[in-house]
Amino acid sequence: MPYLSPHRSLQTNEICLSIIIPMFNEAEMIESLVARLETILCSLADTAEIVFVDDGSTDTTWDKVCGISLTHGECQCIKLSRNFGKEAAMSAGLEQARGLAVIMLDADLQDPPELIPQMLSVWREGYDMVNMKRRQRLGETWFKRFSAKCFYRLMNWVSDSSVPDNVGDFRLMSRQVVDSINAMPERNRFMKGLFCWPGFKQKTLLFDRDPRFVGKTKWNYAKLFGLAMDGITSFSFKPLRLATWCGVITALSSFAYGGWVISKTLFFGETVAGYPSIMVVQLGLAGIQLLALGLIGEYLGRVFVEVKQRPLYLIEEVSHQVQKNQDPFP
Ligand code: UDP
Ligand code: MG
After folding, report:
1. Pocket test for ligand 1, best of 28, 60, 192, 218 (most atoms within 8 A of CB)
2. What would the DSSP string read from start to end of 257-279?
3. Which of 70, 93, 222, 238 is most buried, by the most CB atoms less than 10 A from its CB?
4. pTM score, whole prediction
């Protein structure tokens, strides 16, 4: 059973669009973010809500978010009890969102909110998932672009359900997709993979991703490596099969080499060969064994996390703001 938070009872009245925004120390972004979102929400005829998820910020994000009063649309603010990471914050948002269409948006304005009406019109055409593909990655180093490219290649090679490259978390999902994702019980939540798993009718739109508006990225290479490992190990056991094949090939080669050494000694009477060749074989084999062991450890660690069945996140506080003339709990 997926973890259902006690605040689920808010989910009664129907809303057309939910915009989920995970936030970690984004206090300086809030004003410009809300200003841009308000302009968009005003231009929409549909009912909309913004779901802010404060992922354990240590700055004034929570106070600022609670002080927001929208002229159009509602606002749900969810404070997690500590920093659980973006994947958990997005899961919290997805469980709380009430909209028939749900859009995931970063707080740093890298994903332009001006594209929301276009995404909604694609959803109205009957698509369940509107993927937003980055035409180019502005403001990112060549190493980040290169490592992202390698990751998507590797991910799509090892995994059964394909993760489109350069499609981030910015996307629109129908209620059906959101409900399927909420029903997934796993604790290792590589969201880019989970978003793709349900399938349904998909359309991809191209957009230019802006550089971060203010502040610095919350990801470092160690965190990104962890996310990549989560993605690969939770969507495929091909790496384990690869380790088996490496073992089989190495064992066969050593048998062949052993046979050759024995026959050479028997037929030509050669004495002990050199020390370097023994060391090379020895180190090579030890390396492959350690790699395979590490790989098994990666999977075992994830099984360990799954069997503990801990909740994905804990909610400390929820604040719900509606337009001034509406009752928050009808
Ligand atoms: N974020 C979060 N929890 C974290 C790290 C990031 O909720 O532990 C949020 C962050 O506030 C932002 C979004 O995830 O709204 C994307 O983060 P960031 O811009 O740092 O990532 P990047 O765009 O560099 O991938
Ligand atoms: Mg960003």
Report:
1. 218
2. HHHHHHHHHHHH------HHHHH
3. 93
4. 0.73
